[in-house]
């Protein structure tokens, strides 16, 4: 099969080449991939992978061969898939618990944006709890997870505050997606929030935690700054009326059955309830262009590669 392979000598760290077809385990379906979306984390760390590795967390396609154990959908079924690797190839072996079934006729490119970005947003908000009538802060709101998180929070009845480095450039777009308020930094928020989906880390996480109301939860999803979270003395006191506040770590690939969530999100994208936010799309022969745009922070949204 053809695949995007890690190549440390290439400018992008990737090249199109040939790789052995994957051999599915009994609980895995073999999927013919038609589209994949790129995530900053996998792209930023691609050079740490061994030469010839096939990376890729997100992929949409069609079941080529159903799982031998009888789990999962039949051959010929369109699917959206999540895995630790293998998505940047014509064929992918994927656990049937890690694939969802989108509506018939859904755009594979749009659907391929869902697994990491949409799945992380959905599960982070679930960890926060009830959002109806609550104030929810989303940091890094122009990124893939951030865009999905603010839309899902708005669908859940929240008052949504979006934080982005350049509100002048992105404020109108974030309000169109559902943000009630757009700020540059959490320090600008004048009232406590009940929950935070933090996609930035570092000093912004510290500032966002300081805005939590009593019993509020901050879910730490992203760490793009690479900076430490240093809390000033007294920041963790609970005697100011804001007690029982939580900071929760997050890991999407925890083995939990995410298939139903992926299918639900795919239906929301297909019907237009959620905007996948595709800001770059092209054939996988243009992967170098997409990688550069992503690493240079020129993309606000998702980059999609059409496979084949």
Automatic annotation (TrEMBL):
<dbReference type="InterPro" id="IPR011032">
    <property type="entry name" value="GroES-like_sf"/>
</dbReference>
<dbReference type="InterPro" id="IPR013154">
    <property type="entry name" value="ADH-like_N"/>
</dbReference>
<protein>
    <submittedName>
        <fullName>Alcohol dehydrogenase zinc-binding domain protein</fullName>
    </submittedName>
</protein>
<dbReference type="GO" id="GO:0016491">
    <property type="term" value="F:oxidoreductase activity"/>
</dbReference>
<dbReference type="InterPro" id="IPR036291">
    <property type="entry name" value="NAD(P)-bd_dom_sf"/>
</dbReference>
<dbReference type="Pfam" id="PF00107">
    <property type="entry name" value="ADH_zinc_N"/>
</dbReference>
<dbReference type="InterPro" id="IPR051397">
    <property type="entry name" value="Zn-ADH-like_protein"/>
</dbReference>
<dbReference type="Pfam" id="PF08240">
    <property type="entry name" value="ADH_N"/>
</dbReference>
<dbReference type="InterPro" id="IPR013149">
    <property type="entry name" value="ADH-like_C"/>
</dbReference>
<feature type="domain" description="Enoyl reductase (ER)">
    <location>
        <begin position="9"/>
        <end position="305"/>
    </location>
</feature>
<dbReference type="InterPro" id="IPR020843">
    <property type="entry name" value="ER"/>
</dbReference>
């Amino acid at each position: 099969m053809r695949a995007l392979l890690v190549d440390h000598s290439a400018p992008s760290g990737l090249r199109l080449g040939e790789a052995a077809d994957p051999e599915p385990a009994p609980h895995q379906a073999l999927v013919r991939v038609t589209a994949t979306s790129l995530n900053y984390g996998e792209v930023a760390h691609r050079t740490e992978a061994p030469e010839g590795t096939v990376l890729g967390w997100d992929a949409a396609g069609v079941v080529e061969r159903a799982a031998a154990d009888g789990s999962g959908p039949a051959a010929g079924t369109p699917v959206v898939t999540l895995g630790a690797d293998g998505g940047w190839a014509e064929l992918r072996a994927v656990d049937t618990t890690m694939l969802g079934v989108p509506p018939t006729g859904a755009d594979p490119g749009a659907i391929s944006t869902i697994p990491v970005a949409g799945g992380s947003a959905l599960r982070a908000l679930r960890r926060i709890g009830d959002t109806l009538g609550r104030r929810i802060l989303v940091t890094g709101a122009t990124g893939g997870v951030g865009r999905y998180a603010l839309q899902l929070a708005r669908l859940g009845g929240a008052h949504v505050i979006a934080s982005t480095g350049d509100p002048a450039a992105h404020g109108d777009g974030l309000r169109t997606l559902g943000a009630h308020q757009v700020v540059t930094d959490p320090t600008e928020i004048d009232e406590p929030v009940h929950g935070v989906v933090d996609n930035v880390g570092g000093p912004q996480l510290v500032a966002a935690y300081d805005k939590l109301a009593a019993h509020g939860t901050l879910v730490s999803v992203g760490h793009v700054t690479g900076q430490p979270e240093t809390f000033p003395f007294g920041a963790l006191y609970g005697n100011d009326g804001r007690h029982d506040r939580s900071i929760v770590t997050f890991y999407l690939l925890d083995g939990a059955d995410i298939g139903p969530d992926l299918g639900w999100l795919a239906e929301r994208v297909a019907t237009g309830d959620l905007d996948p936010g595709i800001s770059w799309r092209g054939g996988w022969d243009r992967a170098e262009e997409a990688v550069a745009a992503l690493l240079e922070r020129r993309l606000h949204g998702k980059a999609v590669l059409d496979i084949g």
